[in-house]
Amino acid sequence: MVAVTPQDGTRMRYAWRVCAVTSLGLVLIGIAGSTLNVALPTVVRHFRADALESGWILLSFLLVNTASLVLFGRVADLLGRREVYLAGFALFTVASLLAGLSPGVWFLIAMRVLQAIGAAMILANGTVIITDAFPPERLSQGMGVYIGTLSVAQLAGPTLGGLIAETAGWQWIFWVNVPAGLLALGVGAAILRKMPRRPKEPVDALGNVLVFAALSALLLALSTAGSSGPTSPVVLAGAGLFVVLVPLIVLAERRAPNPVLDLRLFGGRLLTCANLASFCNALARSALILVVALYFQAARGVDAFTAGLSVLPVPVGIGLASPIVGLLGQRISPYALSIGGAVMSAAGLGTLMLTADPGTPYWVIGIGLFVAGCGSGTFLTGNTTQVMRALPAGSLGVVNGFRVMVMNVGIVISVGLSLSVLTASVGPQVRAQVYAGTLSTLSPVAVGQLMDGFQRAYAVLFGVALIGAVLAALARQPQSAPQSAPARRDSTSR
């Protein structure tokens, strides 16, 4: 039996307080995303937005958030993780307040960009702060709770978004973030300790610019391909710029003394396969709530609140699986949990693919959503723990930023790909009716065509989920794993 020292008890009390603060941040970001997924038709109708504007209300946040994650991971390594983390809360809160005051759709999109920058400052650092606070042998428990709070956000978000859209007005979709953001900022400032900074080093300005430009070009091309086609000038220009910038990034980062993206950290099989598996899982799951919410509103004609209730099995599954898996993490390896979660996610999506029909009973759809949610909760906890355990302490920030960035690229592609497949089946003349949630009142024939789109979208996501399961199986810990645990323990004791 291992004796528990007073120092261990003090550290665990602080670790759980840190977990509470960072989980609150994840709830804030999760609610902000999931409320708009369900309430998007209400916002679209208010601004009379066309299909391009409707897509950018969602994609502007994802594009900027994804492209800036690595930057803020590196900035936090150098300037202080606590300071950058709290500044992200402040920016996100102000942007949410202004978003509710938007006079037009493009002002709203601009505020979504500011929200994305604040969210990147939060997301790039939350996981690292938890990893630094918990002993390695207890990390899976903390990570299970942290990931589980995402389900709280997703559980409350769709229902809250639908209720707000139907009663208080679309502005409150953003204003509900303000008191939560102020609370998170105050509690975080009171609880989080200053973390040791890395020695002052010159920032890799060229690398930052090149990485941001490349990601922005790629994600712009991917998001535009669905609405404008793969041969549109924007898609071709974005893809071409990305192809040109990638070798320049490799060359610049190899020569930089302090690269923003240290390519040597991603050469091992574990990190490569684990990050690719995370990408596939994000791509397979992330548009699920949005797609199902559109299904219930556009195909079945229900209101936003009812649609929010209909997608609850996904966050319920995540909420049940994540903390349970966190406890099992002391007996079952994160590697095994990652594989099991990826397989469950594929099973849930396969169920939805086989039952894509307007007459499908609600309980059948609910089973598919619940299994997919359980799989996501299991995979996220196992995969995140597996990656964070394998990293040296000095690179936690930038590698975690890269990890979250990879997931967000999957989210962007998932949203763009799913919406593209869905709307391609009904034609451009009624595409806006899908986003507005009014297709069911327009044409039964169009609804039937849309269901073909749903089935094809689920088939694509199901295939991606299976690839993710294979990659998770390949992400086996090598025998000579980096001994990063002592380094993390030392960093918290200084």
UniProtKB/TrEMBL annotation:
<feature type="transmembrane region" description="Helical">
    <location>
        <begin position="362"/>
        <end position="381"/>
    </location>
</feature>
<protein>
    <submittedName>
        <fullName>MFS transporter</fullName>
    </submittedName>
</protein>
<feature type="transmembrane region" description="Helical">
    <location>
        <begin position="234"/>
        <end position="252"/>
    </location>
</feature>
<feature type="domain" description="Major facilitator superfamily (MFS) profile">
    <location>
        <begin position="18"/>
        <end position="480"/>
    </location>
</feature>
<feature type="transmembrane region" description="Helical">
    <location>
        <begin position="170"/>
        <end position="191"/>
    </location>
</feature>
<keyword id="KW-1003">Cell membrane</keyword>
<keyword id="KW-0472">Membrane</keyword>
<keyword id="KW-1133">Transmembrane helix</keyword>
<feature type="transmembrane region" description="Helical">
    <location>
        <begin position="402"/>
        <end position="422"/>
    </location>
</feature>
<feature type="transmembrane region" description="Helical">
    <location>
        <begin position="457"/>
        <end position="475"/>
    </location>
</feature>
<feature type="transmembrane region" description="Helical">
    <location>
        <begin position="143"/>
        <end position="164"/>
    </location>
</feature>
<feature type="transmembrane region" description="Helical">
    <location>
        <begin position="54"/>
        <end position="72"/>
    </location>
</feature>
<dbReference type="GO" id="GO:0022857">
    <property type="term" value="F:transmembrane transporter activity"/>
</dbReference>
<dbReference type="InterPro" id="IPR020846">
    <property type="entry name" value="MFS_dom"/>
</dbReference>
<dbReference type="InterPro" id="IPR036259">
    <property type="entry name" value="MFS_trans_sf"/>
</dbReference>
<feature type="transmembrane region" description="Helical">
    <location>
        <begin position="14"/>
        <end position="34"/>
    </location>
</feature>
<feature type="transmembrane region" description="Helical">
    <location>
        <begin position="304"/>
        <end position="328"/>
    </location>
</feature>
<dbReference type="GO" id="GO:0005886">
    <property type="term" value="C:plasma membrane"/>
</dbReference>
<dbReference type="Pfam" id="PF07690">
    <property type="entry name" value="MFS_1"/>
</dbReference>
<keyword id="KW-0813">Transport</keyword>
<feature type="transmembrane region" description="Helical">
    <location>
        <begin position="84"/>
        <end position="107"/>
    </location>
</feature>
<feature type="transmembrane region" description="Helical">
    <location>
        <begin position="273"/>
        <end position="298"/>
    </location>
</feature>
<keyword id="KW-0812">Transmembrane</keyword>
<feature type="transmembrane region" description="Helical">
    <location>
        <begin position="335"/>
        <end position="356"/>
    </location>
</feature>
<feature type="transmembrane region" description="Helical">
    <location>
        <begin position="113"/>
        <end position="131"/>
    </location>
</feature>
<dbReference type="InterPro" id="IPR011701">
    <property type="entry name" value="MFS"/>
</dbReference>
<feature type="transmembrane region" description="Helical">
    <location>
        <begin position="203"/>
        <end position="222"/>
    </location>
</feature>
